[in-house]
Structure formats: C-alpha cells, structure tokens
Automatic annotation (TrEMBL):
Keywords noted in UniProt: ATP-binding, Endosome, Magnesium, Membrane, Metal-binding, Nucleotide-binding, Phosphoprotein, Translocase, Transmembrane, Transmembrane helix
Function (record text): ATP-driven pump involved in endocytosis-dependent polyamine transport. Uses ATP as an energy source to transfer polyamine precursor putrescine from the endosomal compartment to the cytosol.
Protein name per Swiss-Prot or TrEMBL: Polyamine-transporting ATPase 13A3
Coiled coil: none
Domain of life: Eukaryota
Biased composition (Basic and acidic residues): 1228-1241
Localization annotation: Early endosome membrane; Late endosome membrane; Recycling endosome membrane
Length: 1253
C-alpha cells in the first residue's frame, strides 16, 4: 500500500485542511456489504454519519496524485472530517503547453492566469490535443491538481500574486473570445448558486439524524412490547418535529436563495482584446474580462478592480455602512513619477479601487470620453459576497463547553443504561423469563435512560430568548450564540458612533501662519477666510457626492463642508461628453460669503462676475484610507495654471508628511491639549504642484508622489459627544464584573479622554501608554513606557521616580479588598503591531489590563479579539459594522449597531443604534444559559427517576403501563419542559456569572443530591408498601380497598384481567411507585426553576405555574379519590385510604428535603464554606467572581472520573496570569522606562527584555 506524508491545503487560511488520498478497494467493499446485511443496514448508517470510517472502510490509502477519493480533515479545534470524489476535466490545449504546465497554471492562478500573454494563445490553433485535469469540489470551491506542489490547490483569480502594473499593462486590453471560453472551462459559471434542496432530500437528511434513528429504534421496540399508544404518540411528536424542522430549514434556504439571486444575473458589457464591446450575461464573466460599468450604475456581479474612471458605490450589503463610498481607478505604477516600486494587487489593501460583488454602483464618472472599466478579479464563490454566503451555508460548529459537556453527560447516561441492561438480563435469567422478553425489556431500559425529547427541550430556551431579543430590536442569525453571550466577561467597543454620537460638530479651527498657531476661531466661513488655502482644503478634501440632488457622504466630511457654507456642483453626462478634460466636481462659495467689491456702476453684475471667477475643480481624489489615516485631493483654482494638493487626516500622520519648518514647535502640546479634552482633531496641509504636472499625468500619478513636502496649515477641532446612555451602560457592565475595552481608529489621547468621561477609566486610575518602535538602523525593537498624564512633563530633572506615580498593586487576604485595576494600558495600532511581532510574551500581560487601543486598523481589531480569546476571555464586540466586520465575526458575541440587514458578518444586529443592547443581550444570554441548565438537569432527573422506577419494578417482573408512560412523558414532562423555559431574564446584570458547562460542582451537586433524594423516597415507598399488613401479591381478585368483597369477583372477570395484564402491570408496587414518581417530576421541576439572579422568579412564569398547579391537582385527585375509568386506563389498583395518606406524607417530606437541599444546603452553606476557602488561596483580577468558578476548581471532573480520568478543571489563563503578576516586582513597567528586545525570537517564541531607565 503506497503511503505518503500528510499534505495541507489552504495553508495559513481559515479553512486550512489536511488531505489524504484513497482508492476504492474491492475486497473491502465486499466486507462492508456483508456487514450492512448482517447489521440490518445499521453499519450503512454509521458510515453515513462518519466520513472518516466510510472512506477507510471501503478504500485503501494511496498517493494523492493518482487517488480516486480524498479525505479532508480541518486543522482547527473541531477536527472535522469530509470526503470528496475526484473528477476529471477534459479540455483542449495548445502544443506549447503540456498537461503538467496547464495544471500549474490552473492551480497557481497567477502563474500565467491561464495565459498571461493573450498573443500566445493565437499560435497553432489547429494543432491541439486533449488532456485531463483532476479536481474535486468541497464547500462550493474547486481544488485542482498541481504538479508543482504535488497536491491540490484551489483556483485563484487575479486577486493574488498579480502586480498592479501587470493589471494595467497585461490585463487591461481584455480577453479574446477563445481565451474567455478556455478560462470558463475552469472557472465555471459566475454565480453564487444556493440551491434549495427538494423536500424529499431534506426529509431523508433529517430522518437519518442519529436522534430520529434512535426514536425509530425505540418505537419498534415499544410496538414489539405492545406499548402501542405510547409509540403512536412518539411517532406523532417526531413527525411534528420533523415537519417543523423541514419548514424552518427550507424557509431559510429559500430566503438565502432569493437574497443571493437578486440581481445576480444581469447583462453586462465587456471589452474584448480587439477593442470591441460585447454584451454577455454576467454568468459568463471570468477573471481577466474587462467589464464596462454603465453610467447609470449596476449591481456588481463579481469582484473587479477599476482601471479607469470613478464610481460611487453603496457597500451596505457587505459592511452595514450606508454611506456611499467613492472608488477610484487603480494607480498605474509605470506612469507615476517617483514610483516607489511595483506592489502586488490585493482586494483588501486596494479596496478603495475594488468594486465588490453584490455592492450597488450608484453612478460613475468618466473623463474625455473614456469608458469606466473594471477588470474582473474574482467570480462566483471566490468573491467577497460568495465567501460571505459560504460562511452561512457551511458555518463552523459552535465550540461551547455546554455542548461538549452535554455529550459527555449523555455518554454517562449510556453507561448507566448499560448497567441497567446487564441488571435486567441477570434478573430475568434468575427468574426464568423467556428469552424474547429478556431482549425486549433489557433494550427498553436503554430507551428509558436516554431521554428522546432532550434535543428539543435544550433548544426551547434559546428559541424563547431569540423571540424576546427580537421584541427589543435585537436580531440574531446564529441562535446558538445566545447561550455563549451569557458567558461574556469582556466587551470591546468601537468609539465613534458606538460610545459617542455618530455625527461630529465643528467646535472650531486653529490655523497656522509662519509656523505659529493663531488663536482658535469658532467659524470658518468668515469673509477673510473665503479665499484662504485652509478653507479651500475644507471645500475640496472630502469624498462627498450628490445623489439625486442630495449631498451625501461621510458624516465628518458633511459637517466640515456645511461649516464653510460652500456649494458643490457635479458635471452631468452631457457636459462630460461635450468638453475635453472637464472638472468632474466643482466647489465654490455662495455669493454672500465673498468679500464685498468696490462700488461700481453695476454692482450686481460685478458681484456675479466675482463669484464666477472663484471656483475650485477637483481634478483627482485619493480617498481616505484607514491604513494610511489620511486622504488627499488634487485641485485647481479656476484661472490658475498650477494645481494644488490638499491633504487632511490624523495630525501625527499629516505633520510627518509636512516640511518640518512649517510645523509649529508647540504642535504636540496644542494637539495634546485638545485630545485630552476629548476633541477629535484633524490636520490640514497644502502644496503647490509643479507646473509640468498636466491633467493626464495627475490621473495616473501615485499618491506617494503627491503626499510629501506639504505645508502644514492648521487643525480642525471636532466635538464628538458621548451618547446619553453610554456612562450608565458601562457602569452596569462594571458592576457585573464585565471588563470594557475601547477599540477605535481615533487619536489615542482623544480615546483616553472619552474613556475617562464615560467611566471606562476611573479618575483615580493611571493610564500607562505603551509606545512600541520597530527595529531601525541596527537598533532592536523597544517599548517606551510613560503615563498619559506625564507625557509632556519636563524630564531634565532627577530621574528619580515619585512613589506616587507607580500604580498601587495590593495583596490582600480578602478578595473583597483586592483591587488589581489600578492601572490601564493604552497603545495605538502601530505599537500593537510591533508588540505582536517582537514582544509576543508581552501580549497576554498587556491585554490583561489594556483598555484603550487607538488608531487600530480593521485587521488589528480582529487580532486584538483573538489575543483576548487566547487568554480565555469570552469576548463581545460592539461596533457600527463598518470597519468592525472581522472583529464582529471573530468575537464570541458580535453586535452590530447598523440598522441595515447588511451586517451579515455579525451574529447579532441591533435596530437601535445604542449600546444598551449589550447588557440586554448578556442578560438574555444568561437567562437562556440558565434555562438550558435547568432543562438539562430536569431531563436528567426525569430519565433517572423513570430508570429507577422501571428498575425497581423489573425486580418483581413488573413495569410501568402504556398509558402510565404516556401520562408521564406527555402530560407531565413535555408540558413542564416547554413552560419552564419561558422565564424571562432578570431585570439587571449581576456580578455573578453562570457556569459555562454542565460539569461543574454547582450543577453536579444539585443533580446528584436530587437523584439521591428521589431514589431514596422511591425505595422507601416500594419497600414500605410490601410490609403493609394488607399487602399480598396482587391478583385480579385482590381488593385492598374492600377486603370483604374480594371473593365476589367472578371467574370471567379474572380471566379478562389476566388477559389484559400479561406484563404484570397492575400491582401495589406499581401504583405506589407511579404516584411517588409523578410528584417527584413536579417537585424537581419547581426546585430547578430558579429565578434570581439570572431569571425572573418562576411565579412570574404564568404558564408554568398554571401547568404545575393543574398537574398537581389532577395527580392528587386521582391518587386520593380514585376514578374507576382513569384507574382502568392508567392500570392502577386500589389501595387503602390510609396508604394513600402515607404516600402523600412521603411525597410531602420528599418535597421539603429537595427544596432544603437545593436552596439551603447547596446555595448557602456549601457555597459559603467553599468560597471562603477559595478566597484564602486565590487572587482574582477583579472583585469576587461568581461562586461557581470557585467551586468548579475543587469539583474535579466527575463524569470524566467514570472513565478513569483525573483531569482537573482548569482555571482561565487570565486568572493565572493576574495571580502571577501580583508578585512580579517588574510589573507594571515604571514610567519613563524602555523595554528592549535583545535578539530575534527564539524557537519557543519568547524574547528576553532589558529595562533601561
């Protein structure tokens, strides 16, 4: 058997997988066929559920190169298996290309892009030969064989390893028809096909679920055992469940299908290599096609990069941001003077030049008769929209301790069922029971132990929580995440639009003249400033556009433009077509803003001429980039020969690009003063361009050539007010021991100021700024530490550090007095990137107390969420959906404040743009989590109680009757389960957090104590009834209620009763156990239905209260006052009234014991004792954590111990780290010190550091 080493596909990607090759093996197939026949088809089911077993059972391992089947395994924590069949693609190829080279070209995407040189394909048209390319499809992505790497690789478009220059030089001419057809044979149809499965397919898939197979097995067993009514009821319930599930799944498929199919097939114009314009369907597009964007806009059917013209795009489908975005053509490095070198094209890096699939192009702008063209770079499922749809179609399983523990608990129930199975067999053999009865009854004990309604019961709480969230305006696309939100202990917030108001108000401006700041000015629309370069920059340096006559764009740009009171005019299509090189956008001041002219004969006419004489045309726009933190425009004042460059952005960035002699000496001081007060500050700069720069050259120039040697002009100060609800919401989260972190793209000092204003950082707490610098000029990377409040203090005095400056780090014996949050770290995105690369050991320490992360790029926000999750935080992320998509998706609970349904990346979307949704979501998550625990505990007790009832009755060769099972399962269990889940969430957040898993001391103690209690009282009833003076083995003639009439029973009645009671259902033990167990189900339902602190009290759950009361009254009534018809139906026997009182007394004592054990012994005494011990030996990050976390550590692993495992439940990493740092004298770093990295990373990733004062 040929074997090979393990191969990896999609290496480094989110969907990285191991791949193994297999070939079908005939003798293995024969053995599998025999096994299927022998097991009655069960082996086939098992192989259907387990892809790994299916492949290994029928195939033999071989090399990937010649395999027929591939086995795939994800490399993430879930380690999921998939299999796929290898297919072959027949195609025609030129003799210049051998099959191997074609495979290379296909798999590499860039290595020719299926022929980089269009001329090459025209040679030797007549001489062709066929070749086969091997591929397989997984999750809607094709993987082709690549001889170069001896593995499979997915087919890339022009989005990877393609240079910006080659896009202009090699790809902008378009494809020939033959090349187009050749590529289409590989890339296939350009569509994101969401096929709606037929009802039959969905039915088969649903029915083959292990849960329903177990149901089918149980029903067959019950029918064999003549439990017809119970079996029928379960069948009906299962059918209702299947129909409901099918309806929901099909509805979701249909919704997704129509969402994707809308505008997915349109007619588009493409430019061919011979300059002809051809109209084709969008489904025929392939990477390399040059698409002509219509002037009236379109819905993009693919991802494409603009090579000429400008587009106004609405990207709300992808980002949730409804503000129109301006897309400009990709700069051509070959035409740009002073080009810094050719860079590789990337849709993420060059997103300002990329039109994404599914986004709406509202309008286009073109110059000199040029068409607006875009080169197709990705099609189908490879596009940004396709990847989004794939994430919905093939979601990753939710990794949550609750679900892992649930499977473990079920496994323990199976072990318990095995014990009962063996007991039944041994007991039946000893009592000489027939073999067929032994088989049926021993298998029946398994169906009793594993509750069939458990999955439905577990999801009930989540469904109800989802409905409650919908009522308060929070919509959820991933219901399983609701439970996880109950565990959140850290929430990251975006600043602008989330913590603060979305809109900014212009507070004032502060201009610079001769490298000196002038006094702040409140208004920027004064007559003296109209023709100044400062106002010209405010008028031109923006991305505003008119859509249907209404000015729209970024809110900050809108406020800035409105503050100067200018007018924006855009050229119409007719004007653009008539004039050569017309200015696409013109801005000019209103007439009344211009300075008054000298008296003249016709003053009105002169004013008009003056107004017309001062206009500025925007020649070229370099849109705002989050990575660059600036934007730039090239403009020309009407009548002037030389053009102007205007730039605005983050003050630090703008100052670094200006001539140092134009930047005021006190620039940093003035900036710091504003940012400390919480203002958002934007800097402006200007530069007169060389006269040799013509209009055509400007259209192709690189922005780096423009954005240098600028003159610093001054600052715009914007006021960003806190939202009214922000401080109160953050205070609630802090009281609940939930950490809050700010992640923003704004200035650091502004962010720190806002963090203090909103209560994220308290007044007495210190902020340590970590300023990390990358290696430079032979120097190693280093981190400079200083306090935010001490940054500008004079440092020429003695280096001695005041003891008051050092954060207090106390060690107390009592956790209530322990405070470790006396200091916070703040850093910007650049420092964060350096620390991630050069100081990996510092990352956990910094995120432990990191509160402000400023100037963070979108991908850095995602990296921060990952870093927090790596130290075991349950992270929530709340943002506006624009730059936060990656972080929202990565977090355990991502909440988008966008009003649009576009934020598909986020599991939760709030229709109200307020962070008040965060505590609401956590409260509902906690309620849903506790409900899941309550239901699970109740279902566990239900199966154990019923299991023990049946085991007791098996000892006397009896059992529960058909209608007894029916009454317990339908009337009691089903009603109780679905009503006990209705408790709404508690009205406020508390410091205590619910346990994250079922294997915790709190839950195990609760379940075990109730099991012991219920088993004890059932045993008492069972044994006690057999010791009663009136007791005798029950026969059809027995009448314990009226012993004198016992002999009057006719022989015919005796025969009928005997025929009806072949299973020995009717007896005193059965009746006693039945009544005690019925009341026990109701007792544990009430005991487990806890309210405060996570849910409303159970008495507020009206349906549950009514259901329990009705069931109590009914059960009490049929026990105390027997009704012949009910007794006959439930197969109960009459017992003396005195014994009924005794049973009632047993039930009453059982209820008192259960309530006392749960609410007094466990919740009060045990928790206090254990938690007080915990306080002596543990130190926490914040004030006391929930008791269950303390108890969990000594609880160990009860269920694991069943299998001989002694693994101790671990404590969260951030808790270990907090405890270690308590005793670290070097932490936190002292102010005005530097930490240096001595050498590159060692193999273990650690860096030695040196602290220099």
């Amino acid at each position: 058997m040929e074997k090979e080493e393990k191969k990896i596909i999609n290496e480094g990607e989110e969907d990285e997988m191991e791949i193994y090759g297999y070939n079908l093996c005939r003798w293995k197939l024969v053995l599998v066929g025999i096994g299927v026949l022998c097991t009655g088809g069960f082996l086939l089911l098992l192989l259907y559920w387990m892809p790994e077993w299916r492949v290994k059972a029928a195939c033999k391992r071989t090399a990937l190169k010649g395999c027929e089947v591939v086995l795939l395994r994800t490399t993430d924590e879930f380690r999921l298996w998939f299999c796929a069949k290898i297919r072959s693609l027949s195609l025609e190829a030129s003799p210049l290309q051998n099959p191997q080279s074609i495979a290379d070209i296909v798999s590499s995407g860039h290595r020719g892009h299926l022929c980089d040189n269009s001329a090459e394909e025209n040679k030797n048209d007549l001489n062709k030969y066929s070749t086969n390319i091997r591929y397989f499809t997984h999750h809607s992505v094709k993987y082709f064989w690549n001889d170069a790497i001896q593995s499979f690789d997915f087919l890339r478009g022009l989005d990877e390893s393609t240079s910006c220059s080659s896009i202009h030089t090699e790809h902008s001419t378009g494809l020939t028809k033959r090349m187009h057809d050749y590529r289409k044979s590989f890339y296939g149809v350009n569509e994101i096909a969401v096929k709606v499965p037929s009802i039959f397919k969905l039915l088969i898939k649903e029915v083959l679920n292990p849960f329903y197979i177990f149901q089918l097995f149980s029903v067959i067993l019950w029918v064999t055992d003549e439990y017809y009514y119970y079996a029928l009821a379960i069948v009906v319930m299962s059918m209702i469940s299947i129909v409901s599930s099918l309806y929901t799944i099909r509805k979701q498929y249909i919704m997704l299908h129509y969402m994707v199919a809308a505008h997915s097939i349109v007619r588009v114009s493409v430019s061919r290599a011979n300059q002809e314009i051809e109209e084709i369907l969008s489904t025929d597009l392939v990477p390399g096609d040059v698409m002509v964007i219509p002037s009236n806009g379109t819905i993009m059917p693919c991802d494409a990069v603009l090579v000429s013209g400008t587009c106004i795009v609405n990207e709300s489908m992808l980002t949730g941001e409804s503000v129109p975005v301006t897309k400009t053509n990709l700069p051509n490095p070959t035409e740009a003077p002073r080009a810094l070198g050719d860079e590789m094209y990337s849709p993420e890096v060059h997103k300002r030049h990329t039109l994404f699939c599914g986004t709406n192009v509202i309008q286009t702008r073109f110059y000199t008769g040029e068409l607006v063209k875009a080169i197709v770079v990705r099609t189908g499922f490879s596009t940004s929209k396709g990847q989004l749809v794939r994430s919905i179609l093939y979601p990753k399983p939710t990794d949550f301790k609750l679900y892992r523990d649930a499977y473990m608990f079920l496994l323990s129930l199976v072990v318990l069922a095995g014990v009962g199975f063996l007991y039944t067999i041994v007991n039946s053999i000893l009592n000489e029971v027939p073999a067929n009865i032994i088989i049926i009854e021993s298998l029946d004990i398994i169906t009793i132990t594993v509750p069939p309604a458990l999955p439905a019961a577990m999801t009930a709480g989540i469904v109800y929580a989802q409905r409650r969230l919908k009522k308060i305006g929070i919509f959820c696309i991933s219901p399983q995440r609701i439970n996880i939100c109950g565990q959140l202990n850290l929430v990251c917030f975006d600043k602008t639009g989330t913590l603060t108001e979305d809109g900014l108000d212009l507070w004032g401006i502060q201009r610079v003249e001769n490298a000196h700041f002038l006094l702040p000015e409140e208004r920027a629309c004064g007559e003296s400033l109209v023709k100044s370069q400062f106002v010209a920059c405010m008028a031109t340096c923006h991305s505003l556009t008119k859509i249907q006559g209404v000015l729209s764009g970024d809110p900050l740009d809108l406020k800035m433009f409105e503050a100067i009171g200018w007018i924006l005019e855009e050229a119409t299509e007719e004007e653009t077509a008539l004039h050569n090189r017309i200015m696409p956008t013109v801005v000019r001041p209103q007439k009344q803003l211009l300075p008054e002219s000298k008296p003249a004969t016709n003053q009105e006419m002169e004013l008009f001429e003056l107004s017309a004489s001062y206009e500025i045309g925007i020649v070229r726009q370099f849109p705002f980039s989050s990575a660059l933190q600036r934007m730039c425009v090239v403009a020309r004042v009407l009548g002037e020969k030389r053009m102007d460059a205007f730039m605005k952005g983050a003050p630090e960035v703008i100052a670094s690009l200006c001539k140092q002699e134009t930047v005021p000496v006190d620039f940093e001081t003035v900036l710091e003063d504003y940012t400390k007060q919480g203002f958002r500050v934007i800097a402006l700069a200007h530069r007169k361009l060389e006269s040799k720069l013509t209009w055509h050259k400007v259209q192709n120039i690189n922005r780096d050539a423009i954005e240098s040697n600028m003159d610093f002009m001054g600052l715009i100060i914007m006021q960003n007010k806190l939202k009214q609800e922000t401080p109160a919401v953050l205070e609630d989260l802090h009281k609940a021991n939930i950490r809050t972190v700010m992640v923003t793209g704004d200035n650091m000092l502004t962010a720190i100021s806002v963090a203090r204003d909103c209560g994220m950082i308290l007044p007495q707490e210190k902020v340590i700024v970590a300023e990390a610098l990358p290696p430079k000029d032979g120097q190693v990377a280093r981190i400079n530490w200083h306090y935010a409040d001490m940054r500008t203090k004079c440092t020429n005095s003695s280096p001695a550090i005041n003891s008051q400056d050092i954060p207090i780090k106390l060690v107390h014996e009592s956790l209530e007095d322990l405070q470790l949050t006396k200091y916070h770290f703040a850093m910007n995105g650049k420092s964060f990137a350096v620390i991630l690369e050069h100081f990996q050991d510092f990352v956990p320490k910094l995120v432990l107390h990191g509160t402000v992360f400023a100037r963070m790029a979108p991908d850095q926000k995602t990296q921060l969420v990952e870093a927090l999750q790596n130290v075991d935080y349950f992270v929530g992320m709340c943002g506006d959906g624009a730059n936060d998509c990656g972080a929202l998706k990565k977090a355990h609970g991502g909440i988008s404040l966008s009003e649009l349904e576009a934020s598909v990346a986020s599991p939760f979307t709030s229709r109200t743009p307020s962070i008040s949704c965060v505590p609401n979501l956590i409260r509902e998550g906690r309620a849903a989590l506790i409900t899941s625990f309550c239901v699970f505990k109740f279902m566990a007790l239900y199966s154990i109680i019923q299991y023990f009832s049946v085991t007791l009755l098996y000892s006397i060769l009896s059992n529960l009757g058909d209608f007894q099972f029916l009454f317990i399962d339908l009337a009691i269990i089903l009603v109780v389960v679905f009503t006990m889940s209705l408790n709404p969430a508690w009205k406020e957040l508390v410091a205590q957090r619910p346990p994250s898993g079922l294997i915790s001391a709190q839950l195990l103690c609760s379940v075990l104590s109730q099991i012991i209690t219920c088993i004890g009282f059932q045993t008492i009833g069972f044994v006690w009834v057999r010791r009663q003076p009136w007791y005798e083995p029950w026969t059809a003639q027995s009448d314990a209620c009226n012993l004198s009439t016992a002999t009057n029973t006719s022989s015919s009645e005796h025969e009928n009763e005997t025929l009806q009671d072949e299973h020995n259902i009717k007896n005193y033990e059965n009746t006693t156990v039945f009544f005690i167990s019925c009341f026990q189900y109701l007792i544990v339902a009430i005991v487990f239905s806890k309210g405060k602190p996570f849910r409303q009290p159970c008495y507020k759950n009206v349906l549950f209260v009514i259901s329990v009361i009705v069931l109590y009254i009914f059960t009490f009534f049929i026990m105390m006052y027997p009704v012949e018809s009910i007794d006959r139906c439930l197969e109960l026997v009459c017992v003396p009234y005195q014994w009924r009182i005794t049973v009632l007394l047993i039930i009453f004592i059982n209820a008192i014991v259960s309530i006392l054990v749960e609410n007094f012994l466990l919740d009060t005494i045990l928790w206090k004792v254990v938690f007080s011990r915990d306080k002596q030996g543990e130190y926490r990050l914040t004030t006391p954590q929930p008791p269950q976390e303390a108890v969990d550590r000594w609880s160990g692993c009860f269920l694991f111990s069943l299998f001989g495992c002694r693994k101790k439940i671990r404590k969260a990493k951030y808790m270990h780290l907090a405890q270690e740092l308590l005793f670290d004298p070097e932490w936190p770093p002292k102010p005005r010190t530097t930490t240096e990295a001595k050498s590159p990373a060692r193999e273990n990733g650690s860096y030695p550091v040196t602290t220099v004062t």
